[in-house]
Amino acid sequence: MIRMTRRCHNEQSPEKIELTRRKLLAGAGKLAAGAALATAGGFSLASMASAKSTYPWPHKKIDVQEAGNIAYENWYKDYCCYATVSGVLIPLQKSVGEPYASLPLEAFRFGHGGTVGWGTLCGTLLGGAIAASFVAGKEGEKISNDVIAWYSATELPIYKPANPKATFKHVNKSDSPLCHVSVSKWMEKEGVEFFTPQRKDRCARLSADVAMKTATLLNAWAAGTYKPVHGSQAKTHNRPSQNNCDGCHG
Ligand code: HEC
Questions:
Q1: pLDDT at 2 over 60
Q2: d(CA 77, CA 200)
Q3: Which of 13, 15, 30, 106 has an alpha carbon within 20 to 30 A of 60's alpha carbon?
Q4: CA dihedral 36, 40, 41, 44 (to 10 degrees)
Q5: Does 154 sit in the ligand 1 pocket, CB within 6 Å?
């Protein structure tokens, strides 16, 4: 039955079909030629195509303080993950240009709140890891491993904004890369709720810290002086894991 129906709808002879296919291909060729010449927002589609095939992308020394300042300000635009990626990559959009310039950084907004509010990996760490991957490729994983270890073991935030949008008293060591754990411990210590100016500024400053740490390690990597310090989590625990076993297993 099905085959019959299909034949009914397809009354063209094989020759005719082949002709149509050739016409289509010729048309597609013209389209492609046109597209190669067309420009969109100052860059040609041809250059976009070549940008796609390059990975990782070129590095130029990142101004670490600038990375922090951008991340802090951009937290207030699209939150932690976007803030951190943009802190590292906007300086490269300016200094290197393409392919960084065409990357829509807003695409990484989704990492906020440990990925759309699910409290998993801190969005700053996800953002830093995305940036490190674009710049250093596979080597970026070692950098991210070190950044995550550092984040978990450090009293944060460290960054001091020139014009703070809010002030608060406490720093905190999370012992965990999880958004939920990190932010909850800090809120408990500071005595504030999640939807407060203090908590927002804490996360904005954390974004600056992670952008600066990532940029620092990427600069060292590019200069050939980077030495990974943290070992493999999976090999250490014989499974992918965080270190704070007691935090969940009691
Ligand atoms: C973020 C919370 C969290 C952390 C941190 C964590 N675990 Fe787990 N782990 C769990 C949960 C949840 C389960 C599932 C338990 C269940 O439902 O029975 C689990 C299961 C396990 C299991 C198998 C089942 C069981 O309950 O024994 C082992 C073994 C284990 N974890 C070991 C570890 C070790 C070792 C570490 C630290 C190196 C660790 N875990 C860190 C949350 C965590």
A1: no
A2: 12
A3: 106
A4: -10
A5: no
Residue nearest to atom 33 of ligand 1 (CA): 245
Ligand 1 atom nearest to CA at 244: 5
User: What pLDDT shows up at residue 161?
Assistant: 98
- Is 239 a pocket residue for ligand 1 (Cβ < 6 Å)? no
Question: How far does residue 120's CA lie from ligand 1's centre (Å)?
Answer: 15
Instruction: Give nearest CA residue, ligand 1 atom 15.
Output: 249
Cβ–Cβ < 8 Å for 122, 242 = no
In angstroms, the Cα distances linking 238 to 93, 121, 214, 235, 244 are 40, 20, 27, 5, 15
Cβ neighbours of residue 56 under 8 Å, at least 6 residues apart? 133, 134, 135, 136, 137, 140
Please tell me which residue, 8 or 156, carries the higher pLDDT value.
Answer: 156
Q: How confident is the model at residue 250 (pLDDT cuts 50, 70, 90)?
A: confident
- Report pLDDT for 15: 44
For residues 210 and 84, the answer to whether their CB atoms sit within 8 Å is: yes
Q: How many CA atoms lie within 13 A of 63 on its CB side?
A: 11
Q: State the pLDDT confidence band at 1, using cuts at 50, 70 and 90.
A: very low
Q: How many CA atoms lie within 13 A of 91 on its CB side?
A: 27
Amino acid type, 54: T
